[in-house]
Specification:
alpha/beta; FAD/NAD(P)-binding domain; D-Amino Acid Oxidase, Chain A, domain 2; 8-stranded mixed beta sheet; 7-stranded mixed beta sheet; 12 helices; binds flavin-adenine dinucleotide
Length: 450
């Protein structure tokens, strides 16, 4: 059986950064993807990434053909289209990338660092021995040949498929199942439009809780005439077909009159707090496979790359000590939670409330700027959510019979602070996990009952 120091399953954004970081430290790394090499990176996605993610992990910013559009802000529209929240500032500066070329660059950098890349190879199962993951079962999609590969540590970076996570036995203590209600199902197209838009530097998000339950639709310019446009809904019971909804609501927007569809397709993204823990004996789970995605907007490229780099750093230390047990890998979850997971957990509480508001409440809230544009930006960067509730707004809401919304928002802001604090103080060992988890679930329950 072929033996590696580390096997990384999935050559997406998270997997590529994990593999590259490990190989740079001199480890013998194998990265496996089911796609043909020339297709790696091609994914149904909004293609938007914040600039800060590149600075955070020291990755070169996109340029040349890889860079489609520089983004300077986000405009969010209320359901009645009467309010436009315009979020601008350092925190939302970013890029629309050519997803294929971006992915190709990351894979190339991993290979240059010394990673062995196996493509058109599907990972089917983890190999488990004496309570440890010691390798993976693979099948070559061209030859149908099955091969077992072994490694000291395996990383599940297989995205939403989470091929290894889903197959871990209960004694590994990993959440194998993500609830449908915590997943967004999306349909997206890239369209060429006739008349150039006048503000290509802005990503636009449209909220309509009645028509697009638990989600939103987006218009992200890749150039003044090329638009990444799509729609996502929460997979709650009886959810509408996102493609039908897209055709009904989005494709009919005046902007797309006489436009040409360049490509289209569906995709899934988990939008909840990260799984906990993300490690077990011989395995670390990263990226979408570990639900490392922003629960509000569904962005997960940057956090998967950061999650991959941090996982590699922990694995390098563990291999130096010759110990790949759950205890040795344990610090990973806490490190991720401090850097990003706490913010995710807070925003997950926000999502739980947002998904249950109605359009009237959303229209009132946005019109009265209950959260100012500046505070929305700060909250999206991980700061505590500040509510702009003055005596005047309280009186107005009372008059409109909407006082309960203010109370809900206040309680939500408090619960967000509490859950973030818990995630910043993730238990140092598995001993404290049950108590920690119970506290998190209790907060979520309160948020769901708001
Ligand atoms: C419609 C949509 C819009 C989105 N928009 C944005 C956005 O604008 N900005 C943003 O930041 N994020 C966005 N996201 C989320 C983002 O795409 C993901 O968070 C990000 O790609 C996660 O990276 P990853 O490496 O974990 O997984 P992926 O990039 O999905 O990579 C997983 C890799 O694993 C491979 N794989 C899967 N199963 C197997 C197997 N069994 N064997 C071998 N290989 C396997 C796949 O082929 C793939 O290459 C969007 C997602 C969707 C669905």
């Amino acid at each position: 059986m072929n033996k590696f120091d580390v096997i990384v399953v999935g050559a997406g954004t998270g997997g590529s950064l994990t593999a590259k970081t490990l190989a740079k430290a001199g480890l013998n790394v194998c990265m496996i993807d089911r796609k043909a090499e020339q297709n790696i990176g091609d994914k149904v996605c909004g293609d938007a990434i914040g600039k800060h993610h590149f600075d955070n992990i020291g990755l070169a910013h996109p340029s040349g053909e890889e860079l489609d559009q520089v983004i300077q802000g986000i405009k969010v529209y209320s359901p009645d289209m009467e309010t436009e929240v315009n979020v601008q500032g350092e925190g939302v500066h970013g890029y629309l990338v050519n997803r294929l070329l971006f992915g190709q660059r990351l894979v190339k950098e991993a290979k240059q660092a010394g990673v062995t890349l196996l493509t058109e190879t599907v990972v089917t199962d983890p190999i488990i021995k004496d309570g440890y993951i010691v390798g993976v079962c693979t099948k070559n999609l061209k030859t149908n040949k099955a091969t077992d590969l072994s490694a000291k540590v395996v990383v599940d970076a297989s995205g939403h498929a989470a091929v290894l996570r889903k197959k871990l036995p209960p004694e590994f203590g990993i959440e194998t199942n993500v609830k449908d209600e915590d997943i967004e199902i999306c349909y997206r197209e890239i369209r060429e439009i006739k008349t150039p838009i006048d503000d290509p530097g802005f990503c636009k998000i449209y909220l309509d809780l009645q028509k697009v339950p638990g989600g939103y639709y987006w218009v992200f310019p890749k150039s003044p005439t090329t638009i990444n446009v799509g729609l996502g809904v929460a997979m709650v019971e009886g959810f509408p077909n996102p493609k039908d909804l897209y055709n009904e609501i989005v494709a009919s927007m005046p902007l797309f009159k006489d436009s040409k569809v360049l490509t289209g397709g569906g995709g899934l993204v988990p939008t909840r707090r990260p799984i906990s823990p993300m490690v077990a004996n011989g395995i670390i789970i990263i990226g979408d496979a570990a639900c490392q995605v922003n629960p509000i907007h569904g962005g997960g490229i940057g956090s998967s790359m950061m999650g991959g780099v941090r996982a590699a750093e922990i694995i390098i230390e563990a291999l130096k000590k010759g110990d790949v047990s759950k205890e040795a890998l344990w610090p990973y979850t806490g490190i991720f939670m401090k850097e990003y997971g706490a913010k995710q957990a807070g925003l997950d509480i926000f999502r739980m409330l947002l998904q249950r508001l109605n359009n009237d409440e959303m229209n009132y809230g946005m019109r009265q700027h209950l959260i100012t544009d500046d505070d929305l930006l700060k909250a999206s960067m991980g700061e505590d959510l500040k509510l702009n509730i003055t005596e005047k707004t309280s009186r107005l809401f009372k008059g409109l019979g909407c006082l309960s919304l203010l109370k809900k928002l206040n309680t939500m802001a408090k619960l967000m602070r509490e859950v973030k604090e818990l995630h910043r103080n993730y238990p140092d060992s598995a001993d404290g996990l049950a108590e920690w988890e119970a506290k998190v679930v209790a907060i979520e329950q309160k948020a769901k009952n708001l």
